[in-house]
Amino acid sequence: MKKAFLIGALLLIAASDAFAGNRIVIFDNTATEVAAAPAALATGEDLWVTLADLTKATKFVLKPQGVCRDELCFPIPKARKSAFLSAQGKVTWFNLSEFARLTKQPTAYDTEHSTWFFGPRPEEQNQFVSSLIAPNFRLPDATGKMRSLQEFRGKKVLLLTWASW
Amino acid sequence: MKDAGKWIEAAKPEYTVLIDEKHLVTRLYDMVNVPTAVWINEKGRIVRPNEVAYVDNRYTGMHKLQAEEYLAAIRDWAENGDRSIYALSEKELKERLAPQNPDWARASAEFGLAEYLYKNNQGAASIKHYKEAQRLNPDNWNYKRQAWALSDAEKEYGTSFMKEVQKLNGKPYYPPRRLPETKSKK
Fold this sequence. Notes:
- The structure holds two protein chains of two kinds.
- Chain A is α+β, with helices and mostly antiparallel strands.
- Chain A contains six helices and 13 strands.
- In chain A, a hairpin with a 5-residue loop joins strand 11 (138-140) and strand 12 (146-148).
- Mean pLDDT of chain A is 89; it is low at 1-17.
- Chain B is mostly helical.
- A two-stranded antiparallel ribbon of chain B has the order 1-2.
- The interface between A and B is large, with 55 and 68 residues.
- Strand 13 (157-161) of chain A pairs antiparallel with strand 1 (36-40) of chain B, so a sheet runs across the interface.
């Protein structure tokens, strides 16, 4: 019992530390800690990140043709470049909130804990509405082994959800 | 697993049981309550989208649905596949499925943020975001039930699941089950 209690307590400390002065980005369901922007950019609800943190948190990369991930590229509107990019000293900052508005990603934000949540773009979320293909997912089974919907191709699947409420 | 594990062990199911702590499936498929089911054919295509999926009658008092019709439909589909009258055509599916409205998308983000805060020991801070998710998508019972289950619902939200169900006074709080009346098209 004593051992279990100690482990629990350690987790608690580590978790509350995660909010101390940092910025947290949740993108594609993955939380990443990013550097806080200089005071000049840290006004309002927008999240500015370094280009390194942009890639670390979202896997998007700034390229001459736009903000890209694999085959996907979103050109930055020329007339509004300053809304997306800002040089502060030697560091270039990128406005991830403005990018979310461009790509129509839904966003939620918590001031007190400096945490930003970016949901899927509408074309990702709604893909199955036109393709009718059941969205794939990977989740652990009751023993912890990862399984995916894809594995069940060739069989009928009754996908039934319940909760422990 | 903490809550459901003992039931899964006791039931020894022959089907696959997955644990979805991040509510990934409900988000991907835009589900609004449990139990909800989707039927997927051998090619990975949806043949029946989200619908209420009680497989016994223990809660019939709340939702007035008989499970037998639904179970018969599942068995018919298991046997006849896409030829089953319960498997919807592409045309019927396109009439039933709609792109997520932007408020629902924002609600989903608020819910995701609330879940993250709660899991990182910021339960008090999560409440505001659960409430915002509920406000933006009042039809989503997953957002309500999750928030109520994780708090003193009466104190934080001024309500409870049973109170809300009673308020509906028999109005469905689910995507309705729409099964055809004839039994087979073999």
